[in-house]
Amino acid sequence: MRIVLVGPPGAGKGTQAAYLAKNLAIPHISTGDLFRANISQDTPLGRKAQEYMRAGQLVPDEVTIGMAKDRMQQSDAEGGFLLDGFPRNLAQAEALDEFLKGEGLRLDGVLDLEVPEDEVVKRIAGRRMCRKDSSHIFHAIYNPPKTEGVCDTCGGELYQREDDREDTVRKRLEVYHTETEPIIDYYKAQGLVVTISALGKVGEVTERAMAALERESAS
């Protein structure tokens, strides 16, 4: 299957992408991984991306699209892939369609993870990271530490990242509504979108997603 995963920040796309890709036996292709791989391997596209990133600028669509095309042409993606974070706007969606058409392929579905905006803010703004070890993550509501402001694991100070502040989260949501949401209508016009609720436990959302994708592939 060839699937695009969409949803607002805080919808759990990364978590669900990993589970879905494993269940479907296809590679999980995320924009973040594409950037890291190309930069670490010092590819021409990686060098271009790094130039923009060092200058504090957004990486242009053509660079991101080039990285995605290269990744989708690797042997492990021959049987399908799950795209996470790409496409993120209409120009990228159109470029993806053009690429797939040129390869004689098409998308099988677009999975839209739906989460109320207030829940997104609650999920992200409640995160607390450990200064000693960033892998130690807590949540003010869903996974609070035993002692407020102190990491249960190593005793390090817990803090809220700038990206997780409520005002920053709301700005990220504005960008999502402006840039990424239009691709949902674009794919709806192609009859590809399956929308599911991303509320509930991780396993419940994964089961919901798998059932929706199975229905889509059978139709």
From TrEMBL:
Write out the annotated subcellular location.
Cytoplasm
Question: What's its catalytic activity?
Answer: AMP + ATP = 2 ADP
The answer on whether this UniProt entry bears the keyword Transferase reads: yes
Top enzyme class, one word, equals: transferase
Q: Is the keyword Iron assigned to this protein? A: no
Record region (NMP): 30-59
> Where, by residue number, does ATP bind?
10-15, 127, 137-138, 200
Q: What domain of life is recorded for the organism?
A: Bacteria
- Name of the featured protein: Adenylate kinase
Quote the gene name from the UniProt entry.
Answer: adk
